[in-house]
Structures are given as C-alpha cells and as structure tokens.
Amino acid sequence: MSDELPPLPDDWTRALAIAAHPDDLEYGTAAAVACWTAAGRDVVYLLVTRGEAGIADMEPARAAAVREEEERRSAAAVGVHDVRFLGHRDGVLVADLALRRDLAREIRRVRPDLVVALNHHDTFGRGAWNSADHRAVGRSAIDAVGDAGNRWIFPELVDEGLEPWSGVKRIAVAASPTPTHAVDVTDGREAAVASLAEHREYLAALGPRPVEEQAREVVLWTTGGTDGPARVTFEVFG
User: Whole-angstrom Cα distance, residue 231 to residue 9?
Assistant: First the structure.
C-alpha cells in the first residue's frame, strides 16, 4: 500500500522529468509536480517525441503540433514553464546510443538534482503490458544519468561545451509496478486534473465522455482513489 511507503526525500531543488510522449506525465505524476512547484522547486519537462502517432484520425504532422501545444498548456497548469521536445519519431523508439546521448545532453544542460523517469518495466501493475516507447525511454533515462556524469562516454558533448554533470542525487521512476517511495499529492490533485484536461483533442479522440470527466477519473485512479490521502508512488534509485 502506498501509505506504507516512506516519503520521497525532498533534499533537491531542480528536477528533470523525462517521458516518451505528451500526456505521459499527466497520468498521476503531474500531481506530484504541482506540489513540488508550489513548494518553490524547479521542474523541467523533456518529451522524447511530439506524440504524432497518438491520434488515429489525425495526420502525424498536424497531431505533433496539436500535442506539443497541449503539453505546454498542460505543464503550465502545474507550474512547469520549461518544456523541451527531442523530436524522435513516435512509436518506434529504441534504447540505443543515440537516445542515451540526447538524454545525457539535456541532463548536462538542465543540471538537475532529481531525474524523474517513467516506468521502464515490462508491465504496469497486474499484467498490463507497457509500451515499447515507454520501456525504451525509461531505461535510457536511467542509463543517461550515468552517461551525463562521465566525460569519456560521449566526449562530443564536451566539445559542445557541456561539461559532465554528476549532481543527480536520485532517479524516481513513476508508475513502477515495484514502488519504494510515495509523495502525498492531496494538495496537487486538482491541478493535475486541470493539467490532464488540457490534452483536449487527445482525450476527445479516446472516447465520447467529456474531457474533464475523463481527466478526473484518471487522476483519481492514479493517485489512489477517494479513500484516504492521495499518493503518487515512485521506484527510487540512489
């Protein structure tokens, strides 16, 4: 149970949150982000793709523009105003050296104390298969933290003027099936609902129910429901 997990340590000031697609961070994690930014912490979002393959009846170039704009509004709803996109192709991500290099580059640029990644395991919870993009980005983000601190793995980054950064104290993996820590997000849940609701065209494509209704249902589900305090869990390394 999440209420039995220790709290995520708060000995950090800047976080880099890495995800594969626009909307990934809004499925629960944004509630924690809202609490962090309200407490004066700085959070940067890094999206590996623009989500162009995510709306079945919308041509990819149009979907990319729509989803990027929705993500910027969504991030602003929880106090995040630095949103970056790598532009890798949606749906076919691979955990290779190119992805690790791009992630290590942004870690060196942002110089975070905390890196938030999304679930890199095969499944979500009980038997729900995790997507290939999520697995590739989650694993690569963890590896890139080490790469960012090692001058000799991607020496071309030093040539770009980006010195190694070894200041990441820990990695917090959201939506892991094996969580180790939790964040009380009671004060951030409403902001998280508003954040997910900004993905209006994406959610409208998922079903006919009102966007706000879908957003509230998802955020309640991913933060522990209505019984007791709201929690977001993380598997923490470091």
Answer: 14
The CA-based dihedral angle spanning residues 140, 144, 146, 149, taken in that order and rounded to the nearest 10 degrees: 180
Give me Rg for the CA atoms of the chain: 17
Give the whole-angstrom CA distance, residue 133 versus residue 120.
9
Burial of 127 (0-12, 13-18, 19+ CB in 10 A): exposed
For 4-44, what is the HEC assignment?
Answer: HCCECCCCCCEEEEEECCCCHHHCCHHHHHHHHHHCCCEEE
Tens digits of residue pLDDT in 3-25: 689 999 999 999 999 999 999 99
The DSSP symbol for 117 reads: E
Q: CATH second-level architecture of 2-237?
A: 3-Layer(aba) Sandwich (3.40)
Q: Mutual orientation of helices 97-110 and 132-148 as an angle, nearest 10°? A: 60
The 10s digit of each residue's pLDDT in 170-186 is 999 999 999 999 999 99
∠ CA 120-137-170, rounded to 5°: 70
Q: SS3 helix, strand, coil % of the chain, rounded to 5?
A: 40, 20, 40
Decide if 25 contacts 67 (C-beta within 8 A). no
Do residues 30 and 191 touch, judged by C-beta distance below 8 A? yes
